[in-house]
Amino acid sequence: MPRACEAPRRHKENQTKAEEIESRAQSIVPVRKKREFFRILLWCHRAVIDERLERDRPWDGKCEHKCDREVLYMRPNQTMVDVGKWPIFTLLSPQEIASIRKACVFGTSANEAIYITHNDEVYVFGLNCSNCLGTGDNQSTIVPKKLEVLCGKKITSLSYGSGPHVVLSTEDGEVYAWGHNGYSQLGNGTTNQGISPVQVCTNLLIKKAVDVSCGSHHSMVLTSDGEVYAWGYNNCGQVGSGSTANQPTPRKVSNCLQSKVVVSIACGQTSSMAVIDNGEVYGWGYNGNGQLGLGNNGNQLTPCRVATLHGVCVLQIACGYAHTLALTDEGLLYAWGANTYGQLGTGSKSNQLSPLQIMMEKERVVEIAACHSAHTSAAKTQSGQVYMWGQCRGQSVILPHLTHFTCTDDVFACFATPAVMWRLLSVEHEDFLTVAESLKKEFDSIETADLKFRVDGKYIHVHKAVLKIRCEHFRTMFQSYWNEDMKEVIEIDQFSYPVYRAFLEYLYTDSVDLPPEDAIGLLDLATSYCENRLKKLCQHIIKRGITVENAFSLLSAAVRYDAEDLEEFCFKFCVNHLTEVTQTAAFWQMDGPLLKEFIAKASKCGAFKN
């Protein structure tokens, strides 16, 4: 992948090539009749408009189309996706999250997940319905388990069904499948559930798979030579074999696609779609809601061309449960099929039997998203705006709604039902530090510090600029000609080293890490320096560390430093454990006035009643 700093140069070069191609368009045979021209235009569209450079290679006038539905997020034009937005990933530790390179959440309730690490190790965890985790058993797990058979395979594309079953392809073009197999959707010639990943061999061993797609209970593969193979449940003709008999092994989808080069595939629940290299769209299978876009609602046992899209060049196709979205090379968006939840974005809930252009008043669309297990739709525009519509957290959004998201994946994480991923998600972890992380790293740095504090004979290295920005006490010290402003070393004798170091570190990190006994001293410092937020943090630490033995000591400190909330907390603790705390040394060491005040207040609370 090209470095982010190279992206502007690469972008400019790609844009120049695109302009040159478009300027010659008038003298070239129409796009629909020039396959190579379409491929070039497709490549330039993705590089210039969508600004995603999927391969670090020079432009050579050719476009080897590889239809994996993953995206490499790169700065500055793309925002990295946080897999933590999917609830199931909250089971993982920060270290495990940081190791993820690709991931997919699937299942009827989004209760299963698979992820690939930077070391190309494959892990799964979740509910394991129908053995969909591929762990060799039917046991659920909240602890990730490694799939040894897939480690090192370099997974490039992955899809899943409703059983669920899982199908994926590797960089070498191999296809693996496992999980639910009641309709032979694993392509192994049986209906036995697949308890672990097994390579799909029939008719595919000599082929190189570049993309996979699954419907509810059927599967499809796109090969590098533009052929489509399908298998599994075929009650509505979704396998494209010309009959409604289930297909136990991969079978080439031919008929109208016989001499075509397919560049993109997608599956609805019981329907299938394909885009060929001249931008034409074909559909087959169930059509009861018009999801094939043929102008009628009759099922199709073999591929049929979507004639309404004549004259436009489709780049991307996406299928929802029973609706379809199509994106053209001009950034136009078309939708058709079921519309019960407003998933077509037309402003109504009426089904559409033929493609209808939507978002006409919006800017150019560069990405569309839908998933066969949901009734949600999403789109991203050229400027990075993300829209969503359809079923969104139980609501029916009938028009595209502008969100605050930066990628379409977030729509499915936060609003789809179930909250699955609509594609195999690639996450680029950039090697950089945020401003906050950089500040934290430079605390007590000898190399960059311009000031030292000496406490209990130990030095703490800091930066005047940071202290002035973060603390009013230091701002006054260094801007009001105090003696300390001219010193390179400032002596501190009124606070201990752990306390003062924790204070200075707080100015760099906005957090405090101290045991409760030292937090009292830090509370004293925070009071002296008028650091109210630090006082609250100290009180929180002290509350967590209160015991019968130190309760009266903490109460005394709270009164001394005017920490009312902490004082009330300590008082209630002492009253609730009155017998125990009155037998501690701290109780008898309390000064007279404070002890009298405590007894009087406790008496009013009924602490001494029989």
UniProtKB/TrEMBL annotation:
Entry annotated with the keyword Repeat: yes
Q: Where is this region: Disordered?
A: 1-21
This chain belongs to which protein, by name? Answer: BTB domain-containing protein
Q: Which organism is it from?
A: Pleurodeles waltl
RCC repeat locations: 120-171, 173-225, 226-278, 279-330, 331-382
Q: Give the taxonomic lineage as stored in the record.
A: Eukaryota, Metazoa, Chordata, Craniata, Vertebrata
What InterPro entries does the annotation carry?
BTB/POZ_dom, RCBTB1_BTB_POZ, RCC1-like_dom, RCC1/BLIP-II, Reg_chr_condens, Signaling_Regulatory_Domain, SKP1/BTB/POZ_sf
Concerning CDD domains, the annotation shows: BACK_RCBTB1, BTB_POZ_RCBTB1_CLLD7
Keywords for the protein's UniProt record, in alphabetical order: Repeat
Give start and end of each BTB domain: 449-516
